[in-house]
Amino acid sequence: EKGKEKWPRGDEKVWKDGLRGVDKDVPDITRSVVHHVQTSLARQAYNLDEAGAYQAAALSVRDNLLVNWNETQLHFNSKPTKRAYYLSLEFLMGRTLDNALLNLGLKNKYADGITKLGFSLEDLLEQERDAALGNGGLGRLAACYLDSSASQELPVWGYGLRYQYGIFQQLIGPDGSQLEAPDPWLQHDNPWELPRSDVTYDIRFYGHSERVDGMKAVWSGGQEVLAVAYDVMIPGYATKNTNNLRLWESKPKRGFDLNSFNAGDYERAVESSNSAAAITSVLYPNDHTTFGKELRLKQQYFWTAASLADILRRFKNLDKPISEFPEYVSIQLNDTHPTLAIPELMRILLDEEDVPWDAAWDIVTRTFFFTNHTVLPKWPVPLMQHLLPRHMQIIFDIVTVEKKFPGDREKLARMSLIEEGFPQNVRMANLACIGSRKVNGVAELHSDLLRATIMKDFVDFFGISKFFNVTNGITPRRWLDQCNPLLSQLIADTLKLPKATFLKDLTRLEGLLKFEDDPNFQKKWAAVKQSNKERLAHYVQVTTGHIINTKAMFDVQIKRLHEYKRQTLNILGVIHRYLALKAMTPEERKKVNPKVVFFAGKAAPGYYIAKLTIRLIVNAARIINEDPETKDILSLFFLPDYSVSLAEILIPASDISQHISTAGTEASGTSNMKFCLNGGLLLGTVDGANIEIAEEVGEQNVFFFGHLTPAVEDLRYQHMYHPVPIEQKCPGLAKVINEVSAGRFGDAGVYEPLLNTIRQNDYYLLTEDFDSYIQALKLVDEAYQDRTEWIKKSIRTTAKMGKFSSDRAIQDYAQECWNIESNKLP
Ligand code: T68
Fold this sequence. Notes:
Blueprint: H1 12-19, H2 26-38, H3 50-77, E1 83-87, E2 91-94, H4 97-104, H5 107-116, H6 121-127, E3 131-133, H7 137-151, E4 156-161, E5 169-172, E6 178-181, E7 193-205, E8 208-211, E9 217-220, E10 223-235, E11 242-252, H8 258-262, H9 266-278, H10 294-316, H11 325-328, E12 329-334, H12 341-352, H13 357-367, E13 368-371, E14 378-380, H14 381-387, H15 389-402, H16 409-415, E15 418-419, E16 425-427, H17 428-434, E17 438-441, H18 444-452, H19 456-462, E18 467-469, H20 476-482, H21 485-495, H22 499-504, H23 519-544, E19 553-558, H24 567-582, H25 586-590, E20 595-600, H26 608-624, E21 634-638, H27 644-650, E22 656-659, H28 671-677, E23 681-685, H29 690-697, E24 703-705, H30 709-721, H31 726-729, H32 731-741, H33 752-759, H34 766-785, H35 787-799, H36 806-818
Parallel strand pairs: 1-4, 1-12, 4-11, 12-13, 13-17, 17-18, 19-20, 19-22, 20-21, 22-23, 23-24
Antiparallel strand pairs: 2-3, 5-6, 7-10, 8-9, 10-11, 14-16, 15-16
Helix pairs in contact: 2-3, 2-5, 3-4, 3-6, 4-20, 7-36, 12-13, 12-15, 14-15, 21-23, 24-26, 24-32
This protein binds ligand T68.
């Protein structure tokens, strides 16, 4: 066994002493920070600003992570271990310093040390820029899963891309529209990554593929690009285990093309080197819809090919026959984005490892697991043929083999990897499905829908057991302890448990149920919420200048802007409320419970309708917040540039949050879980994980409204073929729409395209759900009047969130799919 070999060089004791890292004592911490100030930053106490102090503190914490990271890798390499790999084009990590300190259990000590050096840790934490290499739920889920894998001492690595620019920065222009600016997050040194200039792979594009014998081929020519590894340390909570997230950067293979350079064609030489660097330059800012773009396909192949080469190299160190690959490697495909890994592994096995077709396909289909999150991307055959000729050949070979399956023609056509048409398309979801051992959706309803609709033919063919559910989860470390330290402490004090107990086993929160009737506890519970509301109000005051009434109910909807998520329903509901308030007498208004509504979220830059919704929210806020008659009882904010860090302030402050997608459209949702964990109640449709949340906390503790999934299809059909004018269908909504249309919130005319989506075929069924939505909002108002009962609901909600820990979700994957085991560092 490698780990038991004799010490490689020098005196083991001397080495071990040096490797022990920073001791957990304050003098050692300050010494290490000062050391980094002097050596890494070449500064002194005289010229150190907060940004510098943050860098030095981060480098000092990073030293701890590196020691643990190294030990973890050594530990898992010391004997052949099965590993799982999470392939995700997005990892929405947010900030690292606070999380790392909490996971290492060093936060208080560092706070003391930093204070002694004349800074405040809280201020330094604010210096860090979010790592925002993701669009929304899918990317944040990947980040939560890394935290849970490390915290449970599982051998899991993430693989992704090191984009130079993350999700764009959102600005609001003078007319209320979203503007986009780049996010150069790597402008300052990033202390949380480790460049691995020795870990590189050549990745080929274009060229031609020539069959050599049978199913084998040689792929040559074209363009070669270098993939360079950057490692990001992922510390587990209350464990030394520290996993790895490996991100790839693209670089030209040679500085530039010397042939062109010598021939005097300088521009061409630089162009090809630029085109290599372009691959990982920017995250595509479209959630759900990016396909058809050559650079996007290049990103997908570059990343899957580099990751697979790396995984194979690690496997080869084990000296096992290639047929045992699936015994040591499981690969989870996060949506269809990494599906090219399937033909890529086939290519390696066939062309480089000399494995016959059937044996290769057997290895592939025992290695991959596929999680579906949303819709079904397709890639045009001609584009793939040009960029990846060998992979297109393999996909056609898979189709040839598929054709030998028995079955009726129509069904085969539906299941085919190739969609006929001009041009033909490759259906990535079908490829991911047939190339994987198992397929899952991300909440019960979503998995049921998959099995009943898009995967139905595959269920008939492969059997139901290939298709299963893993309900999403969130990490309680970041989404309770880090973002809501007061609540975490109150829970620990009340349950008389160390935080680590419930942060590692979230079902322990159920212990809070015993205290729901205790007035003293209720008071403390309410005080925590109040102080989080004040923290948010402070943020809003500093960033926008507005003063918020923190005694008001805080109502929050924060997520990507999307028609299906129906922020439009929310803003029209707010306007409805405003009009109702305006119609009241001053006496009547005095009885109304004040409310502050918060929105945040980005729209894809090309998503015109979603951007109009932002504009309407912003401009409605400008009118409503200035209205002296109502501003004390209703105000409205669109907080720009939504991010993980902003979510960490908003979520703990919410009394009620909205998750109001048209039934059957939100695969799961994960912020719903975050709000509930922090004692916010939920107003939502019967969709995604809302359903399972209600099952846990009890339907009497959530506010449901709207049509159910089975009704949606029929309603849409009626809208299509038997349209009814909106004045008739939903007079309340018609009135609101008319006010907007008439220019009451500025810009008469500009909102017409948005309003027409509702007036015309109303695909997302706002006219169908509006009345019950308004009714549900009324119930929320009434419930909030009875503050004691509200607090009890809030306590019960938090207490029943155990199921939604990402630790549980990761255990589901580890057992159902990956077949890997925990292995704690001594
Ligand atoms: C989300 N999907 C689901 N996609 O919408 C959400 N897509 O219901 C679910 O909770 C979450 O995944 C986690 O399972 C996304 O976030 C994307 O962001 C995306 C990005 C690029 C391309 C396609």
